[in-house]
């Protein structure tokens, strides 16, 4: 009985520790994550440079060129998860179908967008339930023009163990396309 009570006390202590998630401000300011954030921004900037080359080639051929400087939403992905169970960022590569680590309890997810999404169209769902957008950071090109976004989502469900997450948004300008991504969070 004594061993059982000691085990229960240890499990209770571990459960309390495992369910505590640090503040979003502290985890996005960690040096390892700041380097990853710069990598995400570079991906969007490279895509933007390729878009600009495409626009320039259209102009040189005398073809129709969009007037608005804001690119339509053409790409978005879920790129990382940090949870109470796995308290360091689990970076997800482009095209991955699942997280690398097992997660549980509360968590943050980071998403990246290239282009402009209608803010009200952004949806991050976990097993069908909407998560709240905790923070959004613009990605700017060398001319200080916003060309994309890094978004941080917060799952407050402390009983989460695993499930399918989906992220979607609709372009704010023509052609008003919808982009989406799916990731299984282990």
If you had to describe this structure to a student in words, what would you say it looks like?
By secondary structure, this protein is α+β, with helices and mostly antiparallel strands. The protein contains three helices and nine strands; from the N terminus they run H-H-H-E-E-E-E-E-E-E-E-E. The strands form two sheets. A five-stranded antiparallel sheet has the order 2-1-3-7-6. The longest helix has 30 residues. It is globular.
Layout of helices and strands, plus pairs?
Blueprint: H1 2-18, H2 24-28, H3 31-60, E1 75-83, E2 90-91, E3 107-114, E4 123-126, E5 129-130, E6 132-140, E7 146-155, E8 163-170, E9 178-185
Antiparallel strand pairs: 1-2, 1-3, 3-7, 4-5, 4-8, 6-7, 8-9
Keywords:
186 residues; 4-stranded antiparallel sheet; 3 helices; disordered N terminus; DUF4879; signal
How would you briefly describe this protein structure?
InterPro entries: DUF4879 (IPR032624). The protein has helices at 2-18, 24-28, 31-60, and strands at 75-83, 90-91, 107-114, 123-126, 129-130, 132-140, 146-155, 163-170, 178-185. The protein is of the alpha+beta class and 186 residues long.
Largest sheet: 5 strands, antiparallel
Rg computed from alpha carbons, rounded to a whole number of angstroms: 20 Å
Number of strands: 9
Strand order of the largest sheet: 2-1-3-7-6
């Amino acid at each position: 009985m004594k061993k059982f009570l000691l085990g229960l006390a240890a499990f209770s202590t571990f459960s309390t520790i495992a369910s505590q998630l640090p503040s979003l401000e502290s985890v996005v300011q960690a040096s390892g994550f700041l380097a990853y954030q710069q990598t995400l921004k570079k991906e969007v900037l490279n895509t933007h440079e390729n878009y600009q080359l495409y626009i320039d080639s259209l102009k040189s051929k005398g073809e129709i060129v969009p007037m608005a400087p804001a690119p339509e939403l053409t790409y978005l992905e879920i790129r990382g998860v940090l949870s109470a169970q796995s308290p360091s960022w689990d970076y997800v590569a482009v095209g991955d179908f699942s997280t690398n680590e097992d997660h549980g309890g509360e968590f943050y997810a980071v998403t990246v967008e290239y282009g402009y999404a209608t803010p009200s169209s952004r949806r991050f769902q976990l097993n069908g339930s909407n998560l709240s957008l905790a923070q959004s950071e613009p990605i700017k090109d060398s001319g200080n023009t916003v060309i994309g976004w890094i978004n941080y989502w917060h799952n407050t469900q402390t009983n989460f163990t695993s499930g399918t997450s989906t992220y979607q948004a609709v372009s704010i300008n023509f052609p008003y396309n919808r982009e989406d991504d799916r990731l299984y969070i282990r």
